[in-house]
Design a protein that fits this description.
Number of strands: 11
Low-confidence stretches: 16-25
Helix content: 25-40%
Order of helices and strands: HEEEEEHEEHEEEE
Structural class: alpha+beta
Length: 163
């Protein structure tokens, strides 16, 4: 009985390690009856240093509640919930440009590039990102909160199959 218990504990450690490894890679996927949907959220995010924060100043970038891994997980959950995989077959790289204000709230969201016939997809993607309600810890310049900008690279891969 002790050996069986030890074996179960040993196996559960490896299963959890695989989840952590997948999150570190940044690959998230959703599979349904017809489409395989994957979003590769590239890390690290691009954080733009505020121009008013000089070279001698101490700059601390904005942080999502729970860190970048938590943001990736929440972002994928909302993309899976609000971007319809049955309508869109998306392959390619898009960039989320997010402005974070002094209070840690997302104030502006822009998605690039603008490609032909993508208005509905970009609208749904923007809606999914806006549904994220957790706040960010704002960027700070010499311990004073400042507005900041973040760019996140998303690579979409969709494979369709007829069943």
């Amino acid at each position: 009985m002790k050996k069986l218990f030890s074996l179960l504990i040993f196996a559960s450690v490896f299963l959890k390690a695989q989840d952590i490894e997948d999150l570190q890679e940044g690959f998230f996927f959703y599979e349904n009856s017809q489409n395989f949907f994957r979003v590769d959220i590239k890390k690290p995010f691009d954080y733009y240093k505020v121009a008013s924060c000089g070279e001698d100043s101490k700059f601390v970038r904005a942080q999502f509640e729970g860190g970048d891994v938590a943001f990736n997980r929440v972002l994928f959950q909302y993309i899976s919930a609000y971007v319809d995989r049955e309508i869109y077959v998306v392959n390619g790289t898009f960039f989320l440009h997010i402005d974070i204000d002094k209070e840690g709230k997302m104030t502006q969201l822009n998605i690039t590039p603008k490609v032909e016939n993508s208005e509905m997809f970009l609208r749904d993607l923007k809606f999914a990102v806006k549904k994220i309600k957790k706040n960010w810890t704002p960027s700070k310049c010499d311990n004073i909160p400042v507005d900041s900008k973040i760019r996140i690279k998303l690579n979409f891969v969709t494979e369709s199959a007829d069943i």
